[in-house]
Amino acid sequence: MSTSPLENLSQEVTRLLATIESFDSLAALVDAEASIIGKRSALSSLQKSLGSLDPDARRDAGARLQEARRLVDDAFAKRREVLSANARSAQLEQDRIDLGDVVVASIRWPASTGHASLVASTQRELEDVFVSMGFTVSDGPEVESDWYNFEALNIPPAHPARGMWDTFYVELGEPETVVLRTHTSPTQIHLMENAVSSSTLPIHSVMPGRCFRRDTPDARHLATFHQIEGLVVDRGITFADLAGVIETFTRAYFGPDISSRLRPAYFPFTEPSAEFEITCTICRGEGCRTCSQTGWIELGGCGVLDPAVLSAVGIDGEVWSGFAFGFGIDRCAQMRHQIADMRALTENDVRFLEQFS
Amino acid sequence: MKISLSWLREFVDLDESVDDLRSILDDLGLVVEGVEYVGEGLEDVVVARVDEIRAIEGADRVRLVIVDAGQGPLEIVCGATNFEVGNFVPLAPVGAVLPGGFAIGERKMRGVTSHGMLCSSRELGLDEDHQGLMILDELTTPKIGEGLLDALSLTSDVVFDISVEGNRPDAWSVEGVARDLATRLGRTLRAPALATATSTVESATFASAHIDAPDLCGRLTISVLRNVKVGPSPAWIAQRLQSAGMRPISNVVDASNYVMLELGQPTHPYDAQHVAQHTIRVRRARSGEVLETLDGIQRPLAMAGRGLGDTGEDCVIVDGDDRVLGLAGIMGGASSEISAATTDVLLEAAYFDPMTIARSSKRHGLRSEASNRFERGVDPELGLRAVARFVEILRESVEDLEWLANSLDVRGTVPTLPQVHLRDGDIARTLGVSLSRAEVTSILEGLGFSVQSDTTGLVVTPPSARLDVRSGSPGRADVIEEVARLYGYGRLPRHTPTWPEPGGLNARQRLRRRVRDVIVDLGVIEAWTPTLISDGDFDLVHSNEERVRITNPLASEESVLRATMITGLVKVWIRNIERGVGDVVLGEIGTVFTHPLSSTHARVTKGGEGGGVTLELPHEKERVTVVFGRLDDDARVAVGFWTVLSRRLGLKDVVVRSSMECPAGLHPTRTGALVDRESGAVIGHVGEVDTSLIESLAPSLRGRRLGVIDLDFDALADPTRALRRSELAEVPSRFPSAAFDLAFVTPRSVHASDLAHELISESELVESVDLFDVYEDESLPEGTRSLAYSIRLSSKDRTLSESEVGSERERLIGRARELGAVLR
After folding, report:
1. CA distances (Å), B76 to each of A350, B110, B146, in order?
2. Distance separating alpha carbons of residues B86 and B91, to the nearest angstrom
């Protein structure tokens, strides 16, 4: 019987383990990887030599070899971990600077031109129009309870109207109790609750912010988007005031030759409700492909506050009345700059971002 | 909902143009999303008989077909092969213009002239079938030369695709749309032809009906139809269904669909021989029950769902053996389906509780034309009228149909119709315009409301179909919307209101704008990085931390709320580097989220059904993050940027402390905390992005340094944490300043800014202390470095004398020595 090819296995393993321990640089260890655990290693050569054995002996030798490989592989991985931790802490030590000792006057600041995001600057322009009309601006959180996002807005659980907002649910509390806000309307509820508890009615405010809907993104929709809504609660407010505010805003923001019109729609939190459309900004009302030859494009929704919403927050609908409206900030930017595909806004390509002041 | 013009015209005279009708519908809130022209372009298409088929030499894809269309043999080149000699096929002769504007001319192919085109049904715009030519003998008994429209009993028609709003279940039907049009146009609404019972046999002798759950089923009518012969519907009925986007199936099923489309009442026909004891019963499903629906899926019933407040309630239809026949109002079961062998039909027309249907349909993921209508609310009084119409329609194909007398009619609980008191002045208070009682009455009566006058106004009761009209003041708003809608929103006045309260931004919003303006001035390009990120990206910085997770993400890459903007900005930087345009400074102002379990600032809010529960929501933090990615940018550049920014923001004294703990994601030995000297609050961090973060995102950028500033905007906006410089102006002294430099060998434990602060606080005469050099050398004592300051002294009321300057200088040196800094 010929000698087993594994005769010297344990010596070989001891030799390899010693070799691994002898490395004190990560680069050298990685360079030697192939010769220690790779295809060119001694153990790999042994593996090939097993072919000549009879099946029983081969199985037995294979198991021994596998165990040997595991030992070597583990030692190699462990050494690599130690050496890379050493390398990192050495690098960190070498990098160390005391930022308290920076001599500011000596810092070279290369000339570079900054640009605000298109969405942020569009939002600012919209806010400015409304501020000039007497509105304040209100911020609100992006994660809301189902109650603020829906129920307080007259949309009870499982109501079919919820189909209008494809909702992302957040894994907190009981299922479907926490959502990413699908509109900035919950901020309206917070505002009204605060105004009631602090006796600071009336309210004239706009609420811009980031919203989320579980819509597959396309050229006209993003799952994450920005909206601005407005809320007025005051004495003697009517649908005529709503139509007037929409018209004044439309001309102020889009220009004097663009006007607005309202047509009936349904929103659970307003009654009467309306969609508002503006003169197509592409064809100026002549009719084109963008507006399907109608001369009008849809911008947003609005309506007189539903008495049920007012009473849910404790506002007396016989004394106070109001209206709300809302539309997309990104959509305004898209229209103004004729951006064919909305997804350009989230690409963050510097060549795109640099075009806007 | 697709509705054809010819169908509408059965209910109301309409001679307006299609464009005019479209605008009228839009203005009524019945928004037309599309208009289709059926049969348009088919006027010239005729029936032709195939007389001969010949191969064309050298062509294997087309053949020469000789047809007769009544004017002698005609040679046509044709690529289809699904026909044989003797078949009748549609021919578009030379000169015809097919749907889509395709004009037929003489065409020469392979040396043969084709005198027209034989058509598939898709080419004719009739359906999607494009397998080959439309074979007319399979559909009808065609005559050579007959117009195709006549041969198929088709009339050209216009189909409006109307989007019906969720609060208008009554308008989800031809009759409902016609009613709005008739009221707006001041025309008469015609009623459809209704059948009466044709048999004197009482329904109760054949069948029985029961409601065990009156809260779930408000009305159950069961009608018995005998002598039914199942077969195809007449062509005009099939065409009506097709125009509405439904496929004709059999005369019984078609009649059910026809009535649903026309009147809005879903009905369900059961084959009576498969309904035990001819008994229909409505009850709650019991847990453990399973139904196999028509789509062949086994559905366990009465299992609690995920939805908020969903208890798992299902309403089912069972037979006399208590066997479940169907999920009420949503989908029937396979066992009692109408088949060719059906002769006796039990026809169900019912009212089910909308919320129960909505929840069941959502839980089972089952939507049907019926459930869509029931969940919005079907008129509880419509059932038997719809049955009468059903019989009238089915009689078109089953002449001796028997409808037993006195259909079974069982009542549960239906919503009571509110009485809405519309006071004089209510309309003006909501719409800003006064309308006369007569005007309001005429609109409301047109819509089927009943209206009575009293001394203070009108008492309005909605028709039973208008389940959307609520009681009390919400109901008043509902009625006023109807008046406004029919009156025309465009005719309502506009008025821009003013109020004494000023508009404007609050301090936090002004600061946010200021920050954005300054960082943009300093060269930051503002990006918009995703709020929703992957677990992998989250782990790059916050491994092992609780994360706020989305239950139903669109993709796993967007399933977690970000806890930092650094990762997002680094990725944007890398992408731009890869595109060769990444030599830039990028920034973002936005919100990051901390799981309530790992935050001491969880937001507590109202939640749960009815807002009755207290919930802990994530802590939302607003941050300002900037990464400095130009070739030579590093932590020092970030410190310089911060110095300018803090001055432009008017901060009093925020210092860089490098000894503080370093947050994950930042470079541990090249990061400092920004600390307000007085309040001790941490305003943010400045330094570099951890090189391991860059390497794991882009191995090729190993070795690149990326400066970073990550500011806590909430702290920045809080003047008790980030103290502001006094607003009081300081006028510089008119007397000359004395300037000199001092260099101190200073222990590393003493911060350069602290030493400067001590020196400037030492004497009123010290105007400024500015670090201008840091010198490190082995010749200096271990653990020290030399800090060189340029110092200016001045007085408000005199020129300082040389001796005064000298003694001040000594004083400063003495103060420094107390702190361990020795003059060099």
Report:
1. 59, 12, 18
2. 14
CATH architecture of B421-475: 2-Layer Sandwich (3.30)
Interval B571-616: pLDDT, tens:
999 999 999 998 999 999 999 999 999 888 889 999 988 889 999 9
The mean pLDDT value for B473-486 works out to 96
Please tell me which of the candidates A103, A133, A204 has its beta carbon nearest to residue B772. A103
What does the pLDDT look like over B278-312, one tens digit per residue? 999 999 999 999 988 877 888 999 988 777 778 88
Residue numbers of A between 78 and 97 with CB closer than 8 Å to B? 88, 91-93, 95-97
Burial class (CB within 10 angstroms; exposed 0-12, middle 13-18, buried 19+) of A232 = buried
Residue A285 confidence (pLDDT) above 50 = yes
Looking at per-residue confidence, does B624 or A14 come out higher? B624
The correct CATH number of B2-39+157-185 out of 3.40.50.1000, 3.40.50.720, 3.70.10.10, 3.30.56.10 is 3.30.56.10
Question: Per-residue pLDDT tens for A325-340?
Answer: 999 999 999 988 989 8
B531 with A224: Cβ contact below 8 A: yes
Q: Which residues of B touch A356 (CB under 8 A)?
A: none
Q: Provide DSSP, A237-266.
A: --HHHHHHHHHHHHHHHH-TT--EEEEEEE
Q: Chain B within 8 Å of A256 (Cβ-Cβ)?
A: no
Structural domain boundaries in chain B = 2-39+157-185, 46-151, 203-411, 421-475, 507-716, 738-823
DSSP-derived secondary structure for B511-548: HHHHHHHHHHHTTEEE----SEE-HHHHHHHHTTS---
Cβ of B616 and A95 within 8 Å?
Answer: no
Q: What is the CATH number of domain B507-716?
A: 3.30.930.10
Among chain A residues, CA nearest to B309: A157
Taking domain B203-411, whether its CATH number is 3.40.50.2000 is answered by no
A65, A7 contact by CB (below 8 A): no
Q: Nearest-CA residue of chain A relative to B588?
A: A117
Question: How does B109-132 read in b/e, with b if 16+ C-beta sit within 10 Å?
Answer: eeebebbbbbbbbebbbbeeeeeb
User: Which residue in chain A has the smallest CA separation from B634?
Assistant: A107
Amino acid at residue number A242: L
ipTM attached to this prediction: 0.89
Comparison of pLDDT for B449 and B42, the residue scoring more: B449
Contact indicator for B62, B56 with CB cutoff of 8 Å: yes
CA distance to partner chain A, nearest, from residue B248 (Å): 28
CATH number for B46-151: choose from 3.40.1790.10, 2.30.300.10, 3.20.20.140, 2.40.50.140: 2.40.50.140
Q: Stretch A232-246: mean pLDDT, rounded?
A: 97
Chain A segment 101-130 residues within 8 A of B by beta carbon are: 101-117, 119-120, 124, 127, 130
Q: Is A352 on the interface with B (CB under 8 A)?
A: no
Helix axis angle, B174-185 relative to B251-263, nearest 10°?
A: 30
Q: Could you tell me the pTM of the whole model?
A: 0.87
Cβ contact (<8 Å) for A97 and B585?
Answer: no
Structural fold of domain B738-823: Alpha-Beta Plaits (3.30.70)
**B283 to chain A nearest CA, in Å?**
21
Q: Smallest CA–CA separation between A127 and chain B, in Å?
A: 9
User: Among A103, A273, A307, whose Cβ lies nearest the Cβ of B774?
Assistant: A103
- C-beta atoms of A103 and B771 within 8 A: yes
The token pair that represents B121 in the structure block: 């049904």
Does B2-39+157-185 match B421-475 in CATH topology?
yes
Mean pLDDT of all residues in A73-94: 89
A158 and B358: CB-CB below 8 Å? yes
CA atoms within 13 A on the CB side of B412: 21
Mutate to test the interface with A, among B352, B551, B713, B786 (most CBs of A within 10 A): B551
